[in-house]
Amino acid sequence: MSPTILLVDVASSERENWKAFLQEQSYKVFTARDADTALRQCHLLQPDLVLLHDTLPEMDGFELCRRLKENPLNQLIPVVVIKRSSDPAENSRGRNAGAADFWEACTSLVEGLLRIESLLRLKSYMDEQAKCVVLSLAHSIEAKSPLIQGHSDRMAEYAVQFGESLGLEERELQDLRVAGLLHDIGKVAVPDSILLKPGPLSANEMEVVRQHPVFGEQICAPLRSLRRILPAIRHHHERMDGSGYPDGLRGQQIPLHARILQVADIYDALTTARPYRIALTSEEALEILRQEALHGWIDFCLVREFLRIHQSEQEFQLRGRSMLASYYGTTPSSKNSTVI
Ligand SMILES: [Fe+2]
Question: In the chain, N or C: fewer CB atoms in 10 Å?
Fold first, then answer.
């Protein structure tokens, strides 16, 4: 993916030179000619870098930088302020405004490019580090209760296995794996008194829990490396008939990765013990999934494929047990012998 740069400057031949030069280097370049557009574009585009020439009539470059940084989504986006000045105090003003770099002047486009490349390398490194922290955070939520321990790892495994059988490309499988690991990261914002409550939740408590996909999206949104999985995180509790949350999306409006996670999520929840019931067998869980698909809550075609995968797996296991039985002269257990 080519890095995206937001170029903030008044319309001028110099701005067009920068734009053309950066595009030649394969960057995606967007421009903003005033402060309002810059604030809006930065929020929507989430560029990899903002190059802010201090030329706007309505606002000082440092002030605009400060306002950009007020938005939590923009925290990790490096902002470079270019301001012609010989005042040494400007440097600290730039730092205080949250600028990643302050250029008093740029002698050439090539020099500017070298500096931009260096900032983008740093941004990419910070993204990867932050991603590790977010992944650790997701695991720390599970560490609070043995009932949910290992859930996200299993989700990642099921989702990738499922994606493979659907013929998804390698990049999509990687996204599914990370989305599986992070789908419930927003639960970090749910109080333990609710998250770990052994009994049924009140309507208010349920409302708090239902916010976790939105919290999750907000936590991951500033990281470029997690941008592609945001829809899966936000929509993994939607339902095909529109009765899910947070947006009440219906059918194909729900992104494919989110629909894949839903199936894996339900299957894992059912095959794991809860305070009020023992873990269901794979066959029982698959039957419930089938019923939910027939009710129109989850994607029927995906469930059919999920059943097919598990059916072949169970047949494979049964064949293995039967071979062992004939070898050792014992009968395989009938507990899991029902093949759906
Ligand atoms: Fe969830």
Answer: N
Question: What is d(CA 330, CA 204) in angstroms, rounded to the nearest whole number?
Answer: 55
Q: Per the structure block, which two tokens stand in for 163?
A: 């994606």
CA of 57 to the centre of ligand 1 (A): 47
What pLDDT score was predicted for residue 332? 36
- Cα(213)–Cα(210) distance, integer angstroms: 7
As a whole number of angstroms, the distance between CA 284 and CA 290 comes to 10
Q: Which residues contact 155 (CB under 8 A, 6 or more apart)?
A: 180, 181, 183, 261, 264, 265, 268
Cis ω on the peptide bond leading into residue 231 (within 30° of 0)? no
The strand order across the sheet containing 101-103 reads 28-32, 4-8, 49-53, 79-82, 101-103
In DSSP terms, 8 is beta-bridged to 32, 52
Enumerate residues with CB within 5 Å of ligand 1 (an ion).
184
The predicted structure's pLDDT at residue 264: 95
Would you name the residues annotated as active-site residues? Answer: 187
Question: Minimal CA–CA distance to 186: which of 253, 128, 232?
Answer: 232
Whole-number pLDDT of residue 314: 61
d(CA 263, CA 130): 29
pLDDT in tens, 254-276: 999 999 999 999 999 999 987 77
Q: Which percentage of the chain shows pLDDT scores above 70?
A: 91
Cα 115 to ligand 1 centroid, rounded to whole Å: 41
CB 60 within 8 A of CB 35: no
Q: Which of 206, 192, 194 is nearest to 245 (CA)?
A: 206
Distance 8 CA to ligand 1 centre (A): 39
Closest of 193, 273, 205, 265 to residue 232, by C-alpha: 265
Q: What is the mean pLDDT of residues 78-92?
A: 86
Q: Tell me the three state secondary structure of residue 98.
A: coil
Distance from Cα 212 to the centre of ligand 1, integer Å: 7
